[in-house]
Write a structure and sequence with these properties.
Length: 485
């Protein structure tokens, strides 16, 4: 099977994996939103922000390096498995020590207990992360999709039952832990290959340089968002974090289906093209052009219809999350190109450059938070928007330096979907003015139809190039024999 066919096949399985994860998570989120208070979500989000940064060092230490390394063998995977286990034990011990201090800083003692219990999940995720990397390298997305579906469904069901029984914030903890444990068990049962403990760690020298750069880059990237969540809790309180977290969840739900699926497949696909610069850049242009043309209208629509969506899905008590949801949805216009730029730079081995960008953005975030002390949610969202724009600017300069793709070339690729999305947003808001007193559910339908018609019509006029690329790609895969390289 050709690389293109394999990648497209894997995209579908990755979409199924992320789609099932997102669907189950979103249904569970709706139920939890009805049963729990914003304070519960806020406290949980602050604790999770720390756990997720810690998880980078346990779950992703060798993941991307193993996926990218063309000569990765069982010896590499076994050595990575052994080190990951040791690192997870050390990180768990650190979390037990620091969480009471973090809880005191935020002013919510529940955060300390919740965080220490959530840390147990890292002890299960670390060993199975090596299996995860092997399957992704071999495009084994079918098994990963089954793992996700089983773990997520069972964990969500039991977590919801706990919420109905009055466990409050602990129902969220139960859901998270069971999803991790059951998902890991499913992955082990469905995978024939098993990693083994070993004393032979020398093979890691082949991937250590990339691993250190990759994990540092991921950690700084994750730390930016998680520090933002954590310090929003410190300065604005856990209730505001609860609303902000709900806005993130609304946007991230769709992002997980579209962008995450694309990202997970792009790294191994582009890694196979890393020595053929012409094909690599062509694949990048096609992916960026088509990807953003599909992603932009979805998120602009979510942002414009956030008040109606939140009212219908989560209930009116969550309406303060509508303004953050609008901001976060529009920021996707900046985030989406970054997704493709990061995959391109990773494929050509520029992980240190990505890490440098993330460190600069993290430094900006720290200085902005320290300077403003986040006196309100608008300040917090402005700080977050600034970090995203800074990251895009720096990555665009990097792509120009390393791949000779100018800012003007990117602007040409993104101009049509950006203009069409902006006019779509104007059309949606003007239509809302004509629908006073309309039921929120009916407004969602009408506004979505108007937005779709505007964007589709403008795309036919402004984005003919994107449509031609998509048609050519589809025809080439239908006509190419499966045995061709």
């Amino acid at each position: 099977m050709s690389l293109a066919r394999t990648a497209i096949h894997s995209v579908w399985w990755s979409i199924i994996e992320n789609g099932s994860l997102t669907a189950v998570s979103f249904v569970a989120l709706i139920i939890f939103a009805k049963l729990l208070d914003p304070n519960d979500f806020g406290s949980y989000a602050v604790a999770v922000s720390v756990i997720e940064v810690a998880g980078i060092f346990t779950n992703m230490l060798f993941h991307d390096a193993l996926v990218r390394e063309p000569k990765a063998s069982d010896a590499h995977f076994n050595a990575a498995f052994t080190v990951s286990l040791l690192v997870s034990a050390v990180v768990f011990g650190i979390l037990l020590t620091i969480f009471p201090l973090l809880a005191a800083l935020v002013g919510d003692p529940r955060i300390g207990d919740v965080g220490r219990v959530l840390g147990i999940g890292l002890l299960f995720e670390a060993p199975t992360s090596i299996l995860n990397a092997r399957l992704r390298k071999e495009f084994g997305f079918r098994i990963l999709a089954i793992r996700t579906l089983i773990g997520r469904t069972a964990g969500a069901a039991i977590g919801i039952l706990a919420a109905l029984m009055g466990f409050g914030i602990w129902s969220l903890v139960i859901q998270s832990l069971l999803m991790t444990i059951l998902g890991s068990a499913t992955l082990v049962l469905l995978t024939e290959w098993r990693p083994r403990l070993t004393r032979k760690l020398r093979p890691l020298a082949d991937v250590l340089n990339y691993s250190v750069g990759a994990v540092t880059s991921l950690a700084t990237n994750f730390a930016t968002k998680r520090a933002f969540i954590f310090f929003t809790g410190v300065f604005l309180g856990v209730e505001k974090v609860g609303f902000l977290n709900m806005a993130f969840r609304l946007v991230d739900t769709v992002w997980a289906i579209s962008a995450t699926a694309i990202s997970q497949v792009m790294l191994p696909s582009m890694a196979r093209l890393q020595h053929d610069r012409e094909r690599l850049l062509r694949a990048y242009r096609i992916a960026l052009t088509i990807g953003c043309a599909l992603i932009y209208p979805i998120f602009v629509g979510i942002g414009c219809e956030a008040p109606e969506l939140i009212s219908v899905i989560f209930g009116t008590k969550w309406l303060p999350a509508a303004e953050p949801a609008l901001w976060l949805s529009l920021i996707v216009l900046v985030q989406a190109p970054r997704l493709f730029m990061t995959s391109l730079l990773s494929a050509i081995g520029e992980i240190k450059s990505i890490r440098s960008v993330n460190l600069v953005v993290l430094a900006y975030m720290a200085m902005a938070i320290a300077a403003t002390r986040l006196p309100g949610i608008d300040y917090a969202l402005a700080v977050w928007s600034g970090s995203e724009c800074l990251a895009l600017t720096l990555l665009t300069l990097l792509v120009y330096r390393k791949c000779d793709l100018s800012s003007y070339a990117h602007l040409r690729m993104l101009a049509a979907p950006s203009i069409a999305s902006g006019l779509m947003a104007i059309g949606i808001n003007l239509t809302r003015q004509l629908l006073p007193g309309t039921q929120p559910s009916l407004s969602i339908v009408l506004l979505s139809v108007v937005g779709f018609l505007i964007y589709a019509g403008l795309s036919l006029i402004l984005a003919k190039h994107s449509l031609v690329l998509a048609i050519e790609l589809w025809r080439s895969q239908r006509q190419k024999p499966s045995g061709n390289p």
